[in-house]
Amino acid sequence: MKRLTLFVFLLLSVITILAGCSSEKPLLIWVGSESEAFYTQKMNDYVALYNASHEEKFPYRVAVKAVDTASAGATFLDDTEAGADIFTVPHDHLGRLIAGASSIAPVQSAELLAQIEANTPEIFFDYIKGTVLGTEYTFGIPIIAQALILYYNKSLITETQVQTWEGILEAAVAANKQALSLAGADGFNNSFLLLARNAQTLESSVRIYADGTLLDCFASGDDTVAIMKWGQRFFTNPNGAKPPSESGWEIELKDGISISMIGGAWQFQAAQRALGSNLGVAKLPTFTLTSADAYGTAEAGTVFQSGTFYDTKMFVMKKNSPRAAYLEDILLYLSSIEVQEESFDQVANLPIYKNAVSEFSGFTGETLSAKLANAQVDMFQFGIPQPFGKQSAFNIYYYSKGAPDLIMEILRNTGNNYTTHAQIKAKLEVIETIWKTGAQN
Amino acid sequence: MEKQAIQIPHNQSLARFFKRVGMFFIDAWRGIKQRIIDFVKRFKNGSVGTKLSHVIMGFGNIYHKQIIKGLIYFLIQAGFLTFMIVAPEINKTPLGFVSLGNLITLGTNPGDIFTDPDNSMLMLLYGVVAIGFIGMFLFAYFSNLKSAYLSDLRLREGKKPRTFKEDIHELMDSRFHITMLTPALIGIIMFTMLPTIFMILIAFTSYDSMHESGVLFEWVGFANFRSIFSGTGEIAKRFGSVLSWTLIWAFFATFTCYIGGIMLALLINKKKVKFKKFWRTIFILTIALPQFISLLAMRNLLGEYGPINSMLIRLGILDSPVSFLAQANNAWTARITIIAINFWIGVPYTMLMTTGILMNVPADLYEAAMIDGATKRQAFFHVTIPYILFITTPYLITSFIGNITSFNVIYLLTGGLPNVPGYEAGQTDLLVTWLYKLTIDKKEYNIGSVIAIMTFIITATATLLTYRRSKTYKEEDAFQ
Fold first, then answer.
1. pTM of the model
2. For B338-379, how does the pLDDT look when each residue is reduced to its tens digit (9 = 90+)?
3. DSSP assignment, residue B383?
4. Under 8 Å between Cβ of B56 and B62
5. Looking at beta carbons, which residues of chain A come within 8 Å of B303?
6. Are A204 and A218 a contacting pair, CB within 8 Å?
């Protein structure tokens, strides 16, 4: 009897496991963790609106799940069947998502295409589209724009000092602290120096996959060499910038180890927790070349404005989703100007729609979120959109093949190997090669 | 003479090795030959039913009026053939006989913007699954022949063929172990063997970050293995140093904890030490906490701006914060710190085990030693220590292997950093953490698979060599 009971128990266990595998899947939407509650509410609103305007009820249960948007694309590609019907990715992930025959669906609805065309700033047009097997399609539905800005400790840095790195360094020396913390040593966070541009002409010689071309990369111009030399002094100064530590930038700001930090809107809440009422937000500062930095055509006294990569977070749709018939209508709603504005009001997501700066009242005023928005809008003119969306190789070569480490080596003058301009230039040429080929030689 | 004395055992062991390899193949061939002979014999000597069972499964049983058993065999055959011929699709990829063809090509349809391309990954997986099904079917097929022939033999002996009721009764009684082990065996095949075979096969493909969903990948032979030993890429440049550090780490992580644990247990077990239970409880507290919490706490304590740095600066020992882990200026600072933290976490396990062993050393061993005139010191070195070593050798080996594949300690303390500029593998990365980065972060599945295979070869070789040479294996439970 005991044996029979044991056998039956085993059988029931197997049946239960198998039954658990076959539950009906909801219409799944992945968004950034900061936006989960907001989009859950918006989807409830959408379903209510749908039910009110249609005879039949919305046929699916909707689930909005928080994900790390930086890895959402990769997670989706791991198992597209289990992936979300709609998900948020930065625009530079498009290349991976549309590689081969594409794993995401192009926008086909004329109404949605018209809304994208009407709302999206022209600078992003090129980055939400992609070419699959020779034909260009629109894949991304932009909802958020973001750029690097400066979070700083208002109690230690004045509004005048925060405009230049020299001013911030002066404040750091006075407080015997470090001028700047970095959130990471990766290719995104180091863009504030690599993409710095002449503050007067707004020009920079740096080219990264210009016009979507793999081999059109350049990082060894006179201005870049001089900027790296300036950055090296900034990073090797005892009160200058510090590379990321095990303790993390939040602790460094909170404990007063450093007085400023370069970050994005997604780090706003953490910065608020670290600095409380002392949190200040500003566009990234300028810096001036000295005679020690000057190289070739980049002369001493030239003022450079720190640069940034900026990007748009956009919704994309799973290819051949069983719920495809409903996705474009949902996206028409979620990417509307009204929802973008609400998203700013509730979770500080910067709306991307055209003329938001002049038309949206949320950008005016002295609130921190308004300053956050304006600092990012200011930075758009000093940056470039992340140019990695055209081919999957761009993103991998730029971020994952060691180039960011080499930039940090130059800035820290590791082993005193980069004391001369020639040594810096030689390493920058190696970095160019990595961008082009994925290897150092 | 001396030279000869060294060479002979070496030559003998080599000869023994080749002899064993040879014997393995000879035994395998003998086994196959015997099965062929049995197969032919069954076909020749079997009844009409048995003969037909070669074509229609279960016919032999039905012929002997074992209807239910025969039907079960028949349904297995019908189900298998239906599965192979109909080739059902799961996630738009066919199983059945089609999957065998797909296993060779790994997909030919590149798809377009509105239609999905072939899914090379699923094709590889389903091909392996189909081979697994064929294997299980062949097992059932030969079982069907055996069953039919057994009934023939029973009839010739004047006995009745077994009824279904008798078979079931036997499965619930004298062969109950088979009933209970079958689901476990199926589980092992499905969840251990098939994924392992799948993983091994990936090492022979071009499945990497450039061949994710939407892009076909193909067979590349041994190219991924060659990239470890030659070329200028990450794998060729970093494999040797990651492997070296992995072995150094495994050695120190194992022996520091092992020796430290034994010493601590001996110390606590000394007669003069009071409050033994209290001391044991104190050390066991680190086991009571989940390991990752202990590790994260240590990482924060040792952070550049953590309490330990602050304390050292206040005491005047340090002038400025020092990074002990991921951002350490010298890789050995991070490595030694990791080994020290691992020592703190790992010592209680060995201490606990050794305490148990010490309490159970046979008293007659000490009595015999004392009668022979041994001092306490001699008894310790010639009885206690050999006894502990004899009992704990398997633990030592599994601990060494466990440390080779120790993921948590490295990943949570340093994440493999400090980095080597230009390379993914950091200076504290073990093979297993590097493998994680390559597969989960970088999607280099094929290279990750090669590293997994290499890790397996190293751990399996180390285990076999050390265990087979240990006294625990040679003398089993005969401690002298």
1. 0.79
2. 999 999 988 998 898 888 888 888 888 888 888 888 888 888
3. I
4. no
5. 245-247, 251
6. no
* Secondary structure of B68-120 as H, E, C letters: HHHHHHHHHHHHHHHHHHHCCEECCEECHHHHHHHHHHCCCCCCCCCCCCCCH
Q: Which CA distances in Å does A220 have to A192, A206, A228, A416, B162?
A: 16, 8, 10, 20, 86
Residue A132 distance to chain B (closest CA, Å): 7
Residue partners of A167: CB distance under 8 A and separation at least 6? A157, A158, A160, A161, A285
User: What would the two tokens of residue A108 be?
Assistant: 């086909």
Query: From CA A200, how far away is CA A197, in angstroms rounded?
Result: 9
A170, A395, A410 from A165: Cα distances, Å: 8, 29, 19
Task: Kindly determine whether residue B112 and residue A81, on different chains, have CB atoms separated by under 8 Å.
Answer: no
Contact B325 A246 (CB under 8 A): yes
CB A260 within 8 A of CB A157: yes
For B385, the token pair is 């220590």
User: Which B residues in the span 142-171 are in contact with A, Cβ-Cβ below 8 Å?
Assistant: none
Alpha carbons A388 and B389: distance in angstroms, whole number: 58
> B45, B43, B44, B40: which is closest to B53 by C-alpha?
B43
- With CB atoms and an 8 Å threshold, state whether A3 touches B302: no
Sign of CA dihedral A10, A12, A14, A20: negative
Question: Are A251 and B232 within 8 A, CB to CB?
Answer: no
Residue B427 makes CB contacts below 8 A (sequence gap 6+) with: B245, B331, B334, B335, B416, B417, B418, B419, B420
Cβ-Cβ contacts under 8 Å for A269 (sequence gap 6 or more): A34
Cα-Cα end-to-end distance for chain A: 72
The answer to whether A241 faces chain B, any CB pair under 8 Å, is: no
Q: 3-state DSSP call for residue A130?
A: strand
A3/B contact by beta carbon, under 8 A: yes
CA angle, residues A12, A14, A15, in degrees to nearest 5: 65
Q: Is B277 exposed, middle or buried (0-12, 13-18, 19+ CB in 10 A)?
A: exposed
Please give the full DSSP string across B417-433, using - where no structure is assigned: PSP-TT-SS-TT--HHH
Q: Which of A132, A235, A246, A414 to mutate to test the interface with B (most CBs of B within 10 A)?
A: A246
Report d(CA A399, CA B313) in Å as an integer.
36
Could you give the C-alpha distances from B70 to B38, B49, B143, in angstroms and in order? 21, 11, 11
Distances (CA, A) of B286 to A8, A326, B402, B462: 41, 53, 19, 29
Q: How many CB atoms lie within 10 A of CB B331?
A: 18
Picking from A3, A251, A402, the nearest residue to B421 by CB comes out as: A402
Query: How confident is the prediction along chain A (441 residues), in pLDDT tens digits per residue?
Result: 666 676 677 667 666 655 555 557 899 999 998 899 999 999 999 999 999 999 999 999 999 999 999 889 999 998 898 999 999 999 999 988 999 999 999 999 999 999 999 999 888 888 899 999 999 999 999 999 999 999 999 999 999 999 999 999 999 999 999 999 999 888 899 899 999 999 999 999 999 999 889 999 999 999 999 999 999 999 999 999 998 888 889 999 999 999 999 999 888 989 999 999 999 999 999 999 999 999 999 999 999 999 999 989 999 999 999 999 999 999 999 999 999 999 999 988 899 998 888 888 888 888 888 899 999 999 998 999 998 888 878 988 898 888 998 999 999 998 899 999 999 999 999 999 999 998 887
CA distance A141 to chain B (A): 18
Closest alpha carbon to B105 in B90, B91, B118: B118
User: DSSP assignment, residue B66?
Assistant: -
A144 contacts: CB under 8 Å, gap ≥ 6 = A312, A313, A340, A343, A349, A350, A351, A352
First to last CA, chain B: 32
CB contact under 8 A, B305 and A252: yes
